Amino acid sequence: MLFPLALFALGLGAVKHCAAEPSVPSSTVFSTYVVHERRAIEPTDWTISRRPNANKRLPLRIGLTQQNVENLESMLLAVSHPESPEYGKLWTPQQVVDAFAPSQATVTKVVGWLKDFGFSQDDIKISANKGWIQVNAQLSEVEDLLKTEYHVYQHKETGDEQLSCHEYSVPAEIKEHIDLIRPTVHFNHRPSPQSETKFKRAGGLGQPSSGVGPKQRPAQPVPPPVATVPPGLIDCDEMITPGCLRALYNVPTFNPAAADKNSYGIVEFTPQAFLGGDLDVFFSNFSPNLVGSRPNTVLIDGAVVQTTDQSFGMNGESDLDLEYAMILTNPQTVTLLQTGDLVQGAGFDNWLDAVDGSFCTFEGGDDPFQDGIYPDPAPGGFDGPESCGIVAPPFVVSTSYGQQEVTITAFSATRQCTEYGKLGLMGTTILYSSGDEGVAGRGGQCLDSQGLPTTNGIMFNPQFPASCPFVTAVGATQVNPGSTISDPEGACEQVIFSGGGFSNIFSIPDYQKSAVSTFLTDHTPPYTSAEFNTSGSRAYPDLAANGANYVVGVDGELQLVFGTSCASPVVGSFITMVNDARLAAGKGPVGFINPAIYSDTFKDAFNDITLGSNPGCNTIGFNATEGWDPVTGVGTPNVAKLIPLFLALP
């Protein structure tokens, strides 16, 4: 998907933000400061407005380095690799908290730094899981503490304001004990969801627009009325329906045997919302018994399923995700994780808060300038408490949203990626669509020699969270024009191109080393390190499913849409079927599936895609070829083969 809503921040031009190095109180034993984080790229549409009041109170949150993060991959492999004797022995939430809590030495070291600087014990608060320290300080004190300078930025259109610095520093002796400090450089604050220009243009996470999200075929007539949509499979190269997907992926008749134990979650970001009438338009044609059915809606941080703004941009993603998830898993209940209020919108961390209370607010990972902080003092904002741990993590979560990897700092991306890994330990499969611009990023942008996005860059532009090694990234395929469901699919090359490539942040995980090495050796791409990261990094996507010509009920009519955002909820539906079989047999959910799908045991459960490519950056991108490739991953699932393979595991 071009990511329905991507959280994209673009270049503003170089601005001098850092003050002359302020003096540190003479009593401190910390003398040498080093830069800890620097903003990846400057934000677009924002200008420096003024210096803030030096006496302004700033709730500084210091994310402490967690223990055992370096062991997270091996911990996940132990419970999710099909050859592991520990397969399926999932962790409890308390085991996760205990395993990753920062060491007492780290807590002592950072608290000592703060006290030595002059803060009293009353100024310092430590979260229950020791993951975060909060210091309530004056802005001038924070600037001295971090050797930085803050400015107030103002959004050109809405007048929204953001407090931010360009970089900050910490003592060299402290650096290894701190992951990140907020609010500082993390400038992903979104203009108000009520911004009309934001809707029409490139929107941030939670703010849909015509430029992101599922795509419509341009300059094409609206598909035929509901009554004349072909009920069969002959036109699957022109219109994808649930029947086409069942035929393409050998999906057996689904009669849930453990629906009361199973769970499937779809994440959406306010103001993007489904319309009940759209679901019924779709259901009436493809599954009449579902007419009137709605998802189990969990409202997170003041979220609303708004119906005031109705358009493809406002309703397309939610309608698409829910229509296909609900039909394919019927009668399994699908849970909608609707996130964020109409004033602030939401970020990825908000839905993580809702399913994991230990990650919530000061007790966990929120960024007050990327994620909504509640109660929200803004006029009309949600004034209730933050939605911490209000719902158990669904066994499968599909999210069709994302951002360019370059727009998030490595520290912040790693912190969030770790949380996905923790959910995997507890038995949740996390799916993210891989992007709709091939090897490029939003709007076809690629990276220049400085690693910044630009329209004339030549370096491939990877996507996040798809590039996180602890999520399953889903690419897109198509039934090639003129072909039938019996013919091999190709990589999606209609309207969108399947996102794929190599991370610039994360190293390659063990589970995909062999597959990626084989691809690079046997099908060596005609590029150098000037085009993509050749140093051994996380590669994506992991698998794929059809993403072209989906028939979707949107705004009262059927339309054709395209995107990896189509593929992710479909794959989620298939994994939900797998979980049903395992739960009915008295086993647990499959959780993190990547080690299994890359293993030789599961090779025959995927249809290898060898046609097409994912162009971008003035290249043809990578080619889909034998075995894994950075276009369609290991291929598309054969569900009838996938279920018994997972069912045979402990």
UniProtKB/TrEMBL annotation:
Its EC number is 3.4.14.10. GO terms for cellular component: extracellular region. Ca(2+) binds at residues 608-609, 627, 629. One of its GO terms (biological process) is proteolysis. It comes from the Eukaryota. The active site is at residues 317, 321, 565. Binds 1 Ca(2+) ion per subunit. Keywords: Calcium, Glycoprotein, Hydrolase, Metal-binding, Protease, Secreted, Serine protease, Signal, Virulence, Zymogen. It catalyses: Release of an N-terminal tripeptide from a polypeptide. Residues 1-20 form the signal peptide. It is an enzyme of class 3 (hydrolase). One of its GO terms (molecular function) is serine-type endopeptidase activity. Residues 239-649 form the Peptidase S53 domain. Secreted tripeptidyl-peptidase which degrades proteins at acidic pHs and is involved in virulence. This is tripeptidyl-peptidase II. It comes from Collybiopsis confluens.
